[in-house]
Structures are given as C-alpha cells and as structure tokens.
Amino acid sequence: MGEILNRLVEDCRRAAGSTDPVAGVQAALSLVTADPDTTIAEIPDFEGEDYVLHRADDLSVFLVRQAPNTAGPPHDHGMTAVIAMLEGVEIHRRYRREGQRITLDREQTAGPGGILVLAPRDVHAIANPDPTPSIGVHVYLGDIVGIERTLWDTASGEALPFTLESYESRVRAYR
Ligand SMILES: [Fe+2]
Question: What global pTM score does this model have?
Fold first, then answer.
C-alpha cells in the first residue's frame, strides 16, 4: 500500500477517535479524491469486489469495485457510512423505511470526487450503469463485517439478515 492509502487509513483512524468523526473522515477522503489517478495507482491487484484497507471495532475502510452493468440489493449498514468515488459512477437508490418495509425514494449519482454520507438506518442500493468497473472508498464508523444488518429482496419486499451470500445472490443486471 502506498503513501496516500496509508495516510487515508491513519487519518480515518484519528477521525474515528475524534469528537466529529464524519467531518474527519470526509476531510480524509477529500485528499484521496483530489487526485484519484494517483490514489488508483496505489491500489494493489485484488480479486472480487472488496479490498480491506483497515478493519477494527470502531472503523472499517474498504475499496469497493462494482462490476460493470450491475445492481445490488437494498441494504442498511447499522453504522454511519461515508463513500467516496475514485473511478466510474455509482448510482445510489435511496429508500424510505417504514418498519420492515422500504419504498424507493430517490436516485443519486456519485461520480469521481463525489462524497456521500449515509446514516446508520439509511437504506440504499448501489448500481454501476457503465460498461467499466467503478472504484470507490467505503468508510464505516464501526466493524461493518461483524455487525448484524438488513438487506431487502426487491422481488418479495422481504427484509433478511445481511450476509455476503444473500447479497451476492441478489446482484442483477443494471437496467
Ligand atoms: Fe452499502
């Protein structure tokens, strides 16, 4: 890992322990999005969708590569998430939540340099509408792998426990 990604993790760790973690993480991410190409040059080759830069009880920092023309299922995070785009586009479908049911609210497009903050109970679904992969940095103020959270099956409307398997089996072609 190079200088920029090391600094990102250090800055996020400091932010996570501060009185305003979201502002600190946003500031840390704005340094990597200021020069996305240099940041991307530091990313090691990795298989699959996620590359873990850091994982602890109070902070997770992931690189997320979304495959071309794909759309994932709606889900929450159970903790604050801050997302910054390095390459390509993520379309975020934002849902309104009433009890266990969700309804589509609006769509936001995050392109290179864009930074998005999601609250713990916010529900979104990510899609990549382009024929090339997108790459983003996803920072969570907690241990995103260890927490119990929810995803929704869009066909049945059913709320289910979030697992990697339940997520991946519901990734569809973007349309
Ligand atoms: Fe998410």
Answer: 0.94
